[in-house]
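User: Show me a protein chain along with its predicted structure.
Assistant: Here is one chain, sequence first, then structure tokens.
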Amino acid sequence: MTDRPLSPPVEKRPADSDVLSPMQSAQREYNAALTRLDHAIQAISRWPDVASSGDTSQLARLNAQWNILPAGAPALGTGVRGRLAGFVWRLLGPALQQQLGFNAALVDHLNRDAAARDRADRSLAEVVSTMREGFEGLVRFESFLVQFLQKITPLVDTKERAVLEAIAELRTVTGIAQRAAASTQRQVERFANELSRGGIDASAPVAPGGASQPEVAEVRNASNAYKYVGFEDRFRGSEEEIRARLEFYVPHFAGAADVLDIGCGRGEFLDLMRAHGIEARGLDLNGAMVDVCRERGLEAVQGDALEYLTSRPDDSLGGLIAVQVVEHLQPDYLVRLLETAFHKLRPGSTIALETINPTCWVAFFESYIRDLTHVRPVHPETLQYLLLASGFNRVEIAYRSPVEDKLQAVAAPRDGASEMLDELIGAFNRNVERLNARMFTYLDFAAIGRRP
């Protein structure tokens, strides 16, 4: 009678943080390098073609027009016009001759420079062509490399998950072994103390192992108790998560004293009560759970719930809570337990019973049937009726732990394409709503009442 709300095991546990941090860092560096490699391939594929380094379209025109003077000295003639022409030639001739020499030198330089540029362009084109062939080979290699890395990445991820699962399994087995050793040590110490006090009856029937039959059965039950502690540690969630869920019940017991937590488990609710200054005690059939509570400085006892309540005086309890307990009980036991609790609670005290919600299919198939110690699921209306029939009043049903939206069925969008299609989508969405109302509601519920 110990389990809290069960949820599917999470892939990444806080205890794995030391393993995951360097691995995640390496994955980020790997992805960044792969991205840089892909960008380099794209850049190489966009390598530009080599164009001619200069414009030679005007060079032929310069070669044809650089000589601004006719060949030889000009004919000056006689008379006034001849003398005038001679005067002009003597005045302008030296400058024109000088310009002619400049034009000849310039055109010769341009011709030689054009030839050199042409040779350089051809050489550069050959070099670029050779480099392009090399880079194209590199691009092909890098493309194959990217394809290889993309194919090997899922394999590496699979290996990583396998390693993490192996680590989680190893930690679970190690925890079980540690609890087994601690449980065995406690039993050995207890038997040693009883033996020293003469508490073992040597005349009782002896089992093959040397102890009496009742003692053997007790040892077997105690040695198996630690396994359920490991089961809760694996499937319930962390203590921080459980404390956050149980905070909901704290206001219902504000100002109370002598609160009893039946099926206290690891003591999360007892720890909350202590933090809020509320006196509370835990009760659990599992001795290993009780030991966990006591190690945390919490008050807890081992025993049967009905026997414990029967031994208490009437009106002696200021509140009672049982989280994930009633599904472990036979129906007649549950009825007697509620009737007894009514008499042991003081008037005005609160009783809160939380259990798995069997009307939610996800809760039933993911949580209820996982635990072999579950006896019978209890419907919300059934538990509410049992509390009312036992004498409690103002019994309310509080639904807890809603199923995440991302796990629910998704309705189809209405695009308004046609009236017939829109009508089909509407019918489909109504069925999605019905499906969500059955399968994806709340994982747990609590029946909360008060003794008048």
